[in-house]
Each structure stands twice: as structure tokens, then as C-alpha cells.
Amino acid sequence: MADRIDAILSLRPNANFGTKDNEIFWEDERTQPTEAEISAEIERLNTLAEEEKTAKENLKASAKAKLISGEALTEDEANTIVL
To answer: Whole-angstrom Cα distance, residue 27 to residue 64?
Structure first.
């Protein structure tokens, strides 16, 4: 799961800041993201991670079904089962 640091770095790549006790110490020349922006970005990052996880699970399931039925796999499907 994404946290505040992940969100800040997503919003302001390579930002110069620190945190202590959930407080942000902003030392970057760019504008500090608001709490609303940070919360929205956490939600966006978590949604994106869940979508990627679901897509990978679906690809694996498709690969398994094709293997069982003897069909050819796509390269992406094959990549899910390569050790």
C-alpha cells in the first residue's frame, strides 16, 4: 500500500523533505502538496497497484487455461509462468 512518502514523491519527484511523527518538513523550492492532494494520490496509487495485481492474476489464469487446452500462449502469458 502506498503511504504519504510514496504519494509526495509521486506528486513531486525527487522532492527535498523530511518527516517526523507524521509531520512533513518541506525543504523543496516547489510548492508543498496539500493534504488533500496527498490523500488523493495515495488513493490513486493504491487503485493503480490493485489494478496491476488483478491484471497479472488474469494473465496467469489465461495462461493456465491455454496450457490446459493446448493453445499457444502470448509472450506476456508465457512471461507469467517462466521461473
So the answer is: 50
